[in-house]
Write a structure and sequence with these properties.
Distance between the termini: 81 Å
Strand order of the largest sheet: 3-2-7-6-5
Shape: elongated
Number of domains: 3
Number of strands: 10
Helix content: 40-55%
CATH superfamily of the largest domain: GAF domain
Number of helices: 14
CATH architecture of the largest domain: 2-Layer Sandwich
């Protein structure tokens, strides 16, 4: 059993030491200076009223819908290992939970339940709160937690971003098991990051359901770098990874930029662009009708003779 008093002493010593520098110690300092918390303090996460919780879920309806299948899939993989999953919004409110009935008592005792608030201000350094504060994936293992009451808990958490690249929430795997080793936690960390990424892509595709999606070439070959393109080849959205690669923001997207220009694709100028666009439109129409000129002409709103003339001009015969 870990000593709560020794842990509190370690937090005070590390947080007050100029030499001590790490993301965990930085979080401990925030908890003491910004939130006026004490590591020996006995406290549970803030809990919302039923109405507050219902409002939080309504506000995050898209996040919940986009995350449901991924949470179920992840829990199917890790649930039997004594893990609990929480999906939170960007303020640390636990919106969704998955856990095995046999483990519920332990997790309920520490507050890993829907309607609770897992920010640093609420319960000090913890996986969810620190991931949201630092906006990066983190693992907070046992006595890395700020409160002595949570030093038997291990958490690994990944932030989730919305279709604009803004922080939307977090996905967390927590366990109270003593026999969890670094290898297991590393595997859980990878699993939660991958699930969070898939949720982000679900949110992105859902926000631009009528667009086509183009993967942006990047040195990491990341599938997360996507742009959404409308029927006029204009970029209407970009994931956070794509924004970083292309060095763009909402203002640049709203100003309007063709996908071909953003991706630096070689295209013709002026009249050549119009010719290419017309050729592409005819090819699509002919492809959809399996080469039937009469049907393609009808779909394009022109006569069969006009389509034949255009095909000859564009060398599509």
């Amino acid at each position: 059993m870990r000593d709560p008093i020794a842990h509190a002493d370690q937090v005070y010593q590390s947080a007050s030491s100029i030499a001590a520098s790490s993301p965990v110690v930085a979080s401990w300092r925030r908890c003491m200076t910004m939130y006026q918390l004490a590591p020996e303090e006995v406290r549970s996460p803030l809990r919302l009223s039923a109405r507050e919780f219902a409002n939080a879920r309504e506000t995050s309806a898209r996040l919940i819908a986009g995350a449901g299948e991924e949470i179920d899939r992840l829990f199917h993989s890790v649930g039997k290992a004594g893990c609990c999953l929480l999906l939170t919004d960007s303020t640390g409110i636990a919106l969704e939970r998955r856990g095995a009935a046999g483990d519920d008592k332990d997790f309920h005792t520490v507050g890993l339940w829907t309607g609770t608030v897992w920010t640093e201000a609420s319960v000090g350094t913890n996986g969810i709160g620190t991931a949201l504060a630092d906006e990066r994936a983190v693992s907070i293992i046992r006595d890395q937690h700020f409160l002595s009451a949570n030093i038997n808990l291990s958490c690994t958490t990944a932030p989730i971003r919305d279709h604009r690249g803004e922080l939307a929430g977090a996905l967390d795997i927590s366990t109270c098991r003593d026999d969890v080793n670094e290898l297991t936690l590393s595997m859980l960390s990878h699993a939660v990051r991958e699930a969070a990424l898939r949720i982000e892509l679900n949110l992105f595709r859902g926000a631009f359901s009528s667009a086509r999606f183009v993967m942006v070439p990047n040195e990491h070959n990341s599938t997360a770098a996507l742009i959404a393109v409308d029927r006029n080849d204009m970029v209407i959205g970009a994931t956070r990874a794509a924004r970083i690669v292309l060095k763009i923001d909402d203002r640049r997207i709203e100003a309007g930029i063709p996908a071909a220009d953003m991706l630096q694709e070689t295209r013709g100028e002026g009249a050549e662009d119009l010719i290419d666009a017309e050729r592409s439109a005819l090819k699509r129409a002919l492809s959809r009708t399996q080469g039937n000129v009469s049907q393609a002409a009808a779909a394009l709103g022109m006569s069969r003779a006009t389509l034949h003339r255009k095909m000859k001009k564009l060398r599509l015969h």
